[in-house]
Amino acid sequence: MSDDIRGVVDAMQLKNITLGGHSTGGGIAVRYMARHKEHGVSRLALFAAAAPSLIQRPYFPYGLSKQAVLDIIRGTYEDRPLMLQNFGNMIFHNYVTPGISDWIFTLGLEASSWATAAVANTWLDEEALFGDLETIQVPTLILHGLDDRVCLYPLALAQKKGIKNARLVPFESCGHFLFYDQSERFNKELMQFIEE
Q1: 2-195: CATH number
Q2: Which contacts of 59-63 are long-range, i.e. CB under 8 A and separated by 24 or more positions?
Q3: Segments of the chain scoring below 70 in pLDDT
Q4: Which residue ranges does the record assign to the AB hydrolase-1 domain (predicted)?
């Protein structure tokens, strides 16, 4: 998927952009930075990023269990609405209206089930992001909710440790959708970073 970003950057002749990625998109952004040598990017912003690993590994005890990810994949095929409902219960830390909850659920249903499972499968085997973090040289902003139950907060600490020029901004009382849980603060932090 990082190659798709390169295609857009080249097709639109983009230069000096701030590349942002949320959740799995954060992992894709990290991979882009390493694989394409930061091509066209002058700043990187990671929001609740699934990097360096969404799942626990023998050398990385943070993240979801492998079984939890396998359950998401199985649920995608066997009972997608229930899987999306359970996942939806993990993404917000603060109260959301039924309308917002229903909207997020509908977005999940509209996504391709094959693509949902394919992306979840990448979480199982992705290990190169540990090395990818160390290649990033551009200024990097890491925004992460302390109460994120999808991409646990220790992932943000690992990103900060792995990226030389990174600044971590923890969001208290905030879950995986920090751009919704604390939209004003999220937008303020991001705009300040872009305009620096």
Answers
A1: 3.40.50.1820
A2: 60/130, 60/158, 62/152, 62/154, 62/155, 62/158, 63/151, 63/152, 63/154, 63/155
A3: none
A4: 4-188
* Domain spans, the chain: 2-195
**How big is the CA angle at 190 (ends 172 and 97), to the nearest 5 degrees?**
55
Which residues belong to the active site? 23, 148, 176
**What angle (nearest 5°) sits at the alpha carbon of residue 43, between those of residues 158 and 155?**
15
pLDDT of residue 17: 98
User: How far is the C-alpha of 181 from the C-alpha of 94, rounded, in Å?
Assistant: 6
Task: Give the span between the Cα atoms of 81 and 123, in whole angstroms.
Answer: 21
Decide: 85 and 105 in contact? Cβ < 8 Å: yes
| Whole-number Å distance between alpha carbons of 31 and 25 | 10
Question: What's the pLDDT at 66?
Answer: 92
The amino acid occupying position 59 is: Y
Separation CA 46–CA 22 (nearest Å):
6
Distance CA 39, CA 16 (A): 9
Q: Which helix (H) or strand (E) holds 45?
A: strand 41-47
